[in-house]
Amino acid sequence: MSATPDQKLWARTRQAVHAEVARTAMGLFLERGFEATTIDDIAAAAGISRRSFFRYFGTKEDIVLGDLAAQGELIRKELEARPATEDAWTALLNALRHAPRPGQDDATTLKISKMLYGTPSLRARSLEKHLQWQALLTPDIRRRLGVAPDDEHDLRADAIVACVLTCLDVAGEAWTRSDGTTPLDDLVLAAVAAVRGSAAAY
Prior knowledge:
Elements: H1 5-32, H2 39-46, H3 50-56, H4 60-81, H5 88-98, H6 106-118, H7 120-145, H8 156-177, H9 184-200
């Protein structure tokens, strides 16, 4: 059953308000700091009530990390589109590199990254989001490895995806510490190479 014009209008209005509240909140976070900015501050700046805020976001953390869930879907689509000739590691790394990314300038991305890595509650929630990514990406890696869908004992796909996502997190933190002077892709590849080299030594 297709949506009615009124339903479509309501959905567009909701999306517009959601985006506006998120922009307002991010501006406050970057100006004042994440922990120093309250939900009441955000609601007042956005011109909505505190109750209305919770219609759009469950927590302050959701404002910063909400796009991560959607990003995981983009990476999954990119991974599934990678050539069958690419091995599991290569396909996953290429999916991370080539999936569409938020259209932020480097300076803003760096500020957000510093806020994320410097705020324990954001750090914890970002790791939760990466667990969601793992659930999205593992099925394709299992397929590339020839693992049967019902084989619960073959842990290779789970281990590869978890390893690459951990390397992405480690690289992101290193990129942030360096003030973005080293390309993130280079840091991710270096982290993965280090892990694969260590594994080969056993």
